Amino acid sequence: MKQFLLFLGFLTPLTASAQRRYWDVSVDSLATGRVAHTHVAVRGRVTLVRREQDGDLHIKLVGRTGFIVAECIPALPCRVPKVGERVTVRGIVRWDAEHHWVEVHPVEWMSFPVGAELP
After folding, report:
1. pTM for the full model?
2. Cβ(46)–Cβ(64) below 8 Å
3. Is residue 102 part of a domain?
4. Which domain holds residue 94?
């Protein structure tokens, strides 16, 4: 019974995140740092993909005038997009004080462009 309850405890966060509301915002509005929503869906063009020493994957998304960094973590891995692709990411908005930019960290979901290979 204890193992079953532990299993149910593991599923609870997944069920809750499936019910979560993601607010559609543009890269440019998110980059201003003035978006009040914590959970967002943002679409942009990939201009940089880099694996960090801690295992995180940084994906720079640009809009018309601004950029944000989408960060995939090892616990929630995502497909490595190609530079030039337009992707949508969903996740939690954070201000990265070290780098002075807005992040979606962690990315909880990423779109797959038509014809893209699945991970």
Report:
1. 0.79
2. no
3. yes
4. 21-110
